[in-house]
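User: Run a structure prediction on this.
Assistant: Running it now.
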Amino acid sequence: MKLIHNRYQIDGVDVTELVEKYGSPVYVYQTARMKQQYEKMLHAFKDIHVRINFACKALNNLNILKFFRSIGTGLDAVSIQEVQLGIRAGFKPRDIIFTPNCVSIEEIIEGVKMGVRINIDNISILEQFGNIYGDKVPVCIRVNPHILAGGHEKISTGHIDSKFGISTYQLPHVHRVVEALNIKVEGLHIHTGSDILDVEVFLRGAEIMLDVARSFPDLEYIDFGSGFKVPYKPDDYFTDIENLGKDLTKRFKKFCKEYGRDLTLIFEPGKFLVSEAGFFFARVNVVKQTLSTVFAGLDTGLNHLIRPMFYDAYHQILNVSNPKGKLRIYTVVGYICETDTFGWNRKINEIREGDYLVFLNAGAYCFTMSSNYNSRLRPPEVMIHEGKEYLIRERETLDDILRNQVTIEL
């Protein structure tokens, strides 16, 4: 988003006009930024066979999925419904990796019927899978490397107390199950968390995975998950993808030579691809001054953007309507009957009632985690593609909330 002649634009589209057209609040996504991030990853790993699967839990609008399919990504799905969305978006089943957690064998069977790659993260399901399919359906195994990493405890998934993956210490048990049931293991998977800054964390996880991989002779790929940090604050740091690419490429090439054939290296980024491509616009309902605080109260709340309350996440907030106004201190809050604070004591250009504010980095885990709490309606979504705007989700109505309710006579 660029400020041109005191007006913000996204790929040439005036954002104030955009919000006035579609109403407030509204989510807006920029496909050019998504493509730029995708190509950045491809370039970092250009010297090996790499596959990028978009983690659609980050942003699952069907049109976004179609866009990623059009530029060449695969898909990382964590529920059978995400698998169904991927198929509807045109992904080939074998370009989808299904990585659920704590689901029943029935959901796994449904994924097999749809032809997608299956990733299993516990021994119980692995046994049930082997008893049903034997060597007829290949499988990927998710390994827990016991690495504590991530920007928040709720997004750290590879430590010893995590529910995700099969512990590296349980691998002898895994091998007994695989051999007894004649299971074909085609891939291994690891994901240690999200918002990881330190490249060494990825490299340490890679060493663990490559060591594990030596004992599986039929591998086609190793999936290193994702978790790359993106900058949320103006002076924030981010994962050095280029240096990671150089170091991991060198190590992966050496491993493949030792293994006896070239394998595919897979990543499954979500936030890295779409976070910076998303913008969430909201209108200021009221500027309320108390004895100690000046609140800017918006026409949105945790029902639309829960990350600041759920993860203590920071989103930069700008005043779109008054970008050159005097900087003042505000606490930005929502309209929900909870303490839904988006940001404390923020320096923002002077806010007036009726102004539009924008939350940056609103592409990942924002709309997908929205709800109808307080019976509020979800906002529309707009996609800006090649300089043109497209409405890709209409604003909800009360009828949408009531659609599946069944009224009875009392």
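The two ends are 54 Å apart (CA to CA).
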